[in-house]
Amino acid sequence: MTTAHHAPGEARPGGRTARTREAVVAAVLEELGESGFGGLTMEKVAQRAGIHLATVYRRWRCVEGLICELLTELSADVPLPDSGSLAGDLRALARAIAAFYGEARVRSLIEAVVSAAGRDPQVAAELRSFFDERLALAGRMVQRAVGRGELPPDTDPVQVLSALGAPFYYRILITRRPVDRDLADSAATAVLAAAHAGAYTRKADGPSPGG
Amino acid sequence: MTTAHHAPGEARPGGRTARTREAVVAAVLEELGESGFGGLTMEKVAQRAGIHLATVYRRWRCVEGLICELLTELSADVPLPDSGSLAGDLRALARAIAAFYGEARVRSLIEAVVSAAGRDPQVAAELRSFFDERLALAGRMVQRAVGRGELPPDTDPVQVLSALGAPFYYRILITRRPVDRDLADSAATAVLAAAHAGAYTRKADGPSPGG
């Protein structure tokens, strides 16, 4: 299941830009499989993808930029459910996130990017924009729930989805224990109850704090 | 406000072990103030504290071990409230956490440790034990709430407190935006509603998943 999504102004799928991206993502995956994160370099990726090194640097800037691109690609396979109820949507998405980070390979990617973001503002910006995009897409399930009258009208989708994701990153980065379906179901139950209780409504005095 | 706490087998406050620890924590703080995290070394800390380098290595193992010790020291100043209601306790603790991580210095400490934990299993173990200890202490407010009949009897304190903390680490490590009082109040409201809804009850088939 793929949810295709393209930022405004981005080349259409099938164009030259898309083919470059595809080749680079494939090369990053292969390089990671062969040499791991420690062995990943811009040079090796450019060579394997058959793309000019200057192009790779211009578009992805650093190794972690490549990892963010790969995360974007992989996360496009996390389905954004539309089950007809917020409870069903939250549970399905939480389980999909649990399955996503249940893979050691994906878990180590997010660890690497978070670790790098602490040292490099450009990586931090990449990481933030990866999450901003995902949160905006997933937020539609909250907008639908508001439309159905399931939630207060001033509910902020970004806050709801951030709250759904937060326990996974806490488990991965802080307590460093396995991500499982129990965590997913607990997160979904918690966010549903909290959203009903108005924990994620926008403050009257400003825009969304962005998770 | 200090909540003194000592692991079983640890020397009593005032003993030689405690004085060593005190000198090392003070030296780490001073070194960080002078040269930042990048300039912190075991040697400089040992010299400034007037402690044998071998002792510092044996007890703290690496620079991040020192940082965890400092975090333990600093977090002992985060009060664990006992207001008489779970709502009051959660809100007070969330605001105290927000104030704690509202300081750029403390925020950069946790970033450094999380970043290092991704590369070094020993640091990961230090980080986990820091949180395990904090969660166990803070869990008492949940036990009191269960005792007052405010929550289901099988509510797991570790899950409740992990859920209270998760949004802060998501904000610090993932979206990398400021931690503020709005986040604290949202987290407290969310966790209270979720706990009432039974999102944090123990599964019948096993022990607590540890946050």
Over all CA atoms, what is the radius of gyration of chain A? Answer: 18 Å
Tally of discrete structural domains of chain A: 2
Helix content of chain A: 55-70%
CATH domain class name of the largest domain in chain A = Mainly Alpha
The shape of chain A is elongated
Q: pLDDT under 50 segments of chain A (min length 5)?
A: 1-11
Which CATH-level-2 architecture of the largest domain in chain A?
A: Orthogonal Bundle
**Chains forming the largest contact:** A-B, 46 and 46 residues
Q: Which whole number gives the mean pLDDT of chain A?
A: 87
Number of helices of chain A: 10
Helix-and-strand structural type of chain A: mainly alpha
Distance between the termini of chain A: 26 Å
Would you give the CATH topology of the largest domain in chain A?
Tetracycline Repressor, domain 2
**CATH homologous superfamily label of the largest domain in chain A:** Tetracycline Repressor, domain 2
Beta-strand segment tally of chain A: 0
Order of helices and strands of chain A: HHHHHHHHHH
Structure description:
The structure is a homodimer of 211-residue chains. The first copy, chain A, is mainly alpha-helical. The first copy, chain A, has 2 domains: 16-60, Homeodomain-like (Arc Repressor Mutant, subunit A, Orthogonal Bundle), CATH 1.10.10; 80-196, Tetracycline Repressor, domain 2, CATH 1.10.357. The first copy, chain A, has 10 helices and no strands. In chain A, helix 1 (16-35) packs across helix 2 and helix 2 (42-49) packs across helix 3. The radius of gyration of chain A is 18 Å and the shape is elongated. Chain A starts with 15 loop residues before the first helix and ends in a 15-residue tail after the last helix. Chains A and B meet through helix 6, helix 7, helix 9 and helix 10 of A and helix 6, helix 7, helix 9 and helix 10 of B.
